[in-house]
Amino acid sequence: MDKYEALKHYFGHTSFRQGQEALIDALLSGRDALGVMPTGGGKSLCYQIPALLLPGMTVVISPLISLMQDQVSALKKAGVRAAYLNSALTPDQIGRVYTLAAAGAYQLLYVAPERLGTWEFQKLCRTLAIPLVAVDEAHCISQWGQDFRPSYLQISDFLASLPRRPAVAAFTATATAEVQQDIIRLLALEDPFYTVTGFDRPNLFFDVQTPKRRNETLLALLEDRRGKSGIVYCATRAKVERVCQFLCDAGIAATRYHAGLSESERKANQDDFQFDRCTVMVATNAFGMGIDKSNVSFVIHYNMPKSLEAYYQEAGRAGRDGEPADCILFFSGGDVSTAKILLESGGNPNLPEAVLAQVHQQDLARLEAMTGYCRTSGCLRNYILDYFGQTHGDACGHCGNCRNTFIQVDITTEAQMILSCVIRVREKLGYYVGKSLILQVLRGSMTKRVEELGLERLSTYGLMRKIKEPQARLWIDYLVQEGYLRVNPLHATLEPTQAAGAVLFRGQQLTMPVRSAPETPREKVRTAPDGPVSEAPDGELFAALKALRFRLARDENVPAYIVFSNATLRDMAEKAPRTMADLLEVSGVGSRKAARYGAAFLEEIARHRGKTE
Ligand code: ADP
Ligand code: ZN
Fold first, then answer.
1. Backbone angles phi, psi at 280, to 5 degrees
2. What is the rounded distance in angstroms from the CA atom of residue 496 to the CA atom of residue 476?
3. Site to substitute for ligand 1 among 8, 13, 15, most atoms within 8 A of C-beta
4. How far is 443 from 473, CA to CA, in rounded Å?
5. pLDDT band at 38 (very low <50, low <70, confident <90, very high)
6. What local confidence, expressed as pLDDT, does residue 516 receive?
7. Secondary structure (H, E, C), 568-580
8. Which ligand gives the minimal distance to the CA of 18?
9. Is 70 exceeded by the pLDDT of residue 373?
10. Is the confidence at residue 271, as pLDDT, over 50?
11. Residue nearest atom 5 of ligand 1, based on CA coordinates
12. How far apart (Å, rounded) are the C-alpha atoms in residues 572 and 580?
């Protein structure tokens, strides 16, 4: 039997998916392999077919008991001799599997990683021919992955304990280069065949929207899709409650799902959705694991998730049936801070401090990539494929950005300011620094770090004093995206590339595409080089000041505008005063109000400054 016959005979498929065949060939020739494919991309065939064609018993290491059981029962139905060993079995059942395995009864044996260290399992494996060891969910070996499992670290010892080293195949759906390097290093893969496939989902339409009023925009989207089934993901349980209520009040057949509901309600709501009694599911990310509803025709993210991995997994629940489906993400600058807060509050308390700090760095890098997706003006599909390392063609022509028209705005001057600031700071300090410090210098913020490092004396200090932070950030992100700056993966510092020289010294012009006429009145970005810039989305500080104003007004039982007007708060957020004298510079702050409320506002600003430095 060859691989094509095995494919047809055992699995009933007539052709391989892109990437599967090359991976199978590598394993059949005895080479190690690393396959990066999304969930549902067809990883299992890649090791099952070699297992069926190679003599001996293939060992599959998998952390998920239920998945293991499903796979084994499916394989058995297909006539494959397979079994599993995990803690769900009784000692008797385990004994039986060992006996049969020793007698050479199995082509595939699935085990949980904990089993590898046991004496009995090692003894079994020393007596059997093992041509291949497949490691599923291989990112679990990396501390930088989201699901680090210490038991995975035993795998390399296990491999070393075998009389003859088998080919090793590692599979993951995780993208980051660090995690992939960890997998190669910790599993000691030897010159592995490497492939990234299956991430493209041509039937999905991607779009990012920045609605002023999310509920209204959501409702309009749902009304356009009446009768169709879809999921609305929200960041928190409270949001789920509110959005679901709003939709029900508006006559949409919506239901909800989050971890705060009773088991029975979750089950009932899930069924209502599954059976199309309710067409819209409003949920947190707790919803979806193990859901296999194929006719989901849209997934709308009411809030930005914390990583592109999470986003793509959630959005990818649309269009499983191959029909055209929409993946729409609502974004505002505030989502970034919410996501940061959620990250801060997470974290595995069992990890040592230093590791935790690095994990946090990784989380921030993932968030950064997610934010980049929301801000890019390039093809959204290609942004995703780039992130997951899959090669692709030109712009897809079938995403929100490809369909929108952009105008090219000259940003040569801005680029020069940014690049020379990065270089000046490096000259002064002897090392590169991160984006937020560069922003502080450019915008002339007098933060503690700027002061300590003496950066306010640089000629580039305050060059972008009049520019709002989100706009300046957008330019920096664009320079990174276009390869004029790079983010050092180790320290998250911004560094100029070779290409920067052309813009700085050789008169190269640089333009940036800016969305020109959005269908819905989205962000109005005006990027005349020195004119007033974007009506920025309300910043974090502004939001904090508004919250403080609300508390003060409530305590005094007066309307909020009596404390300070919005315009005053906006100016205050912009100037971020440190002292009472600075505060009096803010338009709308007189001495009476400064005396009455000044201390509270200065304190809030100081607290905010502490958070963002
Ligand atoms: P993963 O392990 O990557 O999550 P699976 O191996 O479970 O994904 O495959 C997902 C689905 O794709 C399964 O239903 C499987 O039958 C199907 N599939 C895999 N390879 C092929 C193929 N070559 N042709 C058709 N369907 C395939
Ligand atoms: Zn596109």
1. -115, 130
2. 11
3. 13
4. 11
5. confident
6. 55
7. HHHHHHHHCCCCH
8. 1
9. yes
10. yes
11. 42
12. 12
Residue nearest to atom 26 of ligand 1 (CA): 13
Regarding pTM above 0.70, the answer is no
The rounded mean pLDDT for the chain is: 88
Pick the residue whose CA is nearest to atom 12 on ligand 1: 42
Name which residue sits closest to atom 25 of ligand 1, judged by CA.
Answer: 13
**C-alpha radius of gyration, the chain, whole number:** 28
b/e code 57-76 from CB counts within 10 Å (16+ = b): bbbbbbbeeebbeebbeebe
pLDDT by residue (tens digit) across 113-150?
Answer: 999 999 999 999 999 999 999 999 999 998 876 688 99
Higher pLDDT residue, 519 or 480? 480
CA 20 / ligand 1 centre spacing (Å): 10
Q: Which atom of ligand 1 is nearest to the CA of 43?
A: 3
Per the model's pLDDT, the better-predicted residue between 523 and 120 turns out to be 120
Q: How many angstroms separate the alpha carbon of residue 298 from the centre of ligand 1?
A: 22
Q: Which ligand is nearest to the CA of 70?
A: 1
Q: Hey, whose CA ends up nearest to atom 20 of ligand 1?
A: 42
| Predicted confidence (pLDDT) at residue 524 exceeds the cutoff of 70 | no
Average pLDDT (568-581) is: 88
Question: Which ligand ends up closest to the CA of 206?
Answer: 2
Measured in residues, the chain has a length of 613
Helix (H, G, I), strand (E, B) or coil at 512: strand
For 291-317, letters b (16+ CB in 10 Å) and e give: bebeebbbbbbbbbbbbbbbbbbbbbb
Mutate to test the pocket of ligand 1, among 9, 17, 172 (most ligand atoms within 8 A of CB): 17
The pLDDT-based confidence of 255 (bands split at 50, 70, 90) is very high
Q: How many CB atoms lie within 10 A of CB 7?
A: 22
**Atom from ligand 1 closest to the CA of residue 15:** 23
Tens of pLDDT, residue by residue over 227-238, are 899 999 999 999
What is the CA(182)–ligand 2 centre distance, in A?
32
Which protein residues touch ligand 1 with a CB less than 6 Å away?
A: 13, 16-17, 20, 37, 39-45
